[in-house]
Design brief:
Blueprint lengths: L3 H7 L6 E4 L2 E4 L3 H8 L8 E5 L5 H13 L19 H5 L6 E4 L9 H4 L3 E6 L2 H12 L18 H9 L8 H9 L1 H4 L6 E4 H6 L1 H12 L5 H10 L2 H11 L30 H15 L6
Parallel strand pairs: 3-4, 3-5, 5-6
Antiparallel strand pairs: 1-2
Length: about 300
């Protein structure tokens, strides 16, 4: 009988997937996940924790500007600080305070994150929009270590939704990720994290920037909050990432791909999901998270 990993690869996921502790994982990530668990953490590290396609680049740049105290883009791509992808040596070259980003679940993070009391910003987004954004990226993304030059996903949209619900879409199963982060306050008593919603940032970015700055203990002027919000608009951020930044850690893409930055809107899922797909998604969401789909 085929495993979920094998079924996903047969249906168009063009990465080697394996079953690890009952979950689908990208084979090349296994050693990296083990290494991430024991990476040295500094007292002043700031961790940006997200499920993929939840506004990671957006929030990472905002956090860098808050720390810098001005609306100035970080020199490097955010991938230079990707906790589970960078080596210990690469991360050690980063100046403090480091703003590390990760898609890992709390149980996969270095334990020192919790007892050192690092600042943790956790960003969520409507998962239906995450599905659409993931599909558009993975169906056009060509990984630099993919010798076949194929996109990461070449299957159908229908299958993509099903594999997402079953936890087969790399790099992390959605529901396991959401469950652990939802319950982190119970698992790590008295540890305060800053919870941010993508939709709230779209509604009032300045307000959310101010809230993150307060959490980090780095309050800024109202003008600076507005400047950061403007600098981190979709078009400005896309231009900065493609034209101004060091491209060392930039992944390769097929011609015509929008890369990490596509529409940057809320509710695009309505243009993709059928009524039946939406209802099935809502049903699985309620079964797995024990709550009604909130969006």
């Amino acid at each position: 009988m085929s495993t979920l990993a094998e079924n996903a690869m047969k249906a168009g996921v063009n990465m080697e997937l394996v079953m690890d502790d009952g979950k689908v994982q990208v084979a090349l990530m296994l050693d990296r996940l083990k290494n991430a668990k024991v990476l040295p953490i500094r007292d002043d590290d700031i961790l940006l924790c997200t499920y993929p396609k939840s506004g990671t680049h957006w929030t990472w740049e905002i956090l860098n500007m808050i720390v810098a105290g001005k609306a100035e883009y970080a020199k490097h791509w955010q991938n230079s600080t990707w906790l589970e992808y960078r080596t210990k040596e690469e991360l050690e070259t980063l100046a403090s305070p480091r703003i590390l980003h990760t898609h890992l679940r709390p149980s996969q993070l270095p334990e020192t994150v919790w007892y050192k009391g690092c600042k943790v910003v956790y960003v969520t987004r409507n998962p239906k929009d995450c599905v659409v954004s993931s599909y558009n990226q993975l169906s056009k993304q060509v990984w630099k270590d993919n010798p076949a030059g194929k996109a990461s996903y070449t299957g159908t949209w229908d299958d993509f939704i099903e594999f997402f619900l079953k936890g087969c879409i790399p790099p992390v199963p959605y529901f396991e990720h959401a469950i652990e982060w939802t319950n982190i306050s119970e698992a790590k008593k008295d540890f305060e994290i800053c919870r941010v919603h993508y939709e709230d940032m779209k509604q009032d970015c300045v307000r959310e920037i101010r809230r993150m700055a307060d959490y980090l203990g780095r309050p800024l002027s109202d003008k600076t909050y507005y400047d950061i919000s403007e600098a981190c608009s979709l078009m400005n951020l896309k231009h900065a990432n493609e034209k101004l930044k060091d491209q060392t850690y930039h992944f390769q893409w097929q011609d015509g791909a929008s890369g990490y930055f596509r529409k940057g809107i809320t509710g695009d899922w309505k243009n993709w999901f059928t009524v039946a797909q939406s209802e099935r998604f809502d049903k699985v969401y309620k079964e797995r998270l024990n709550e009604t789909f909130p969006y």
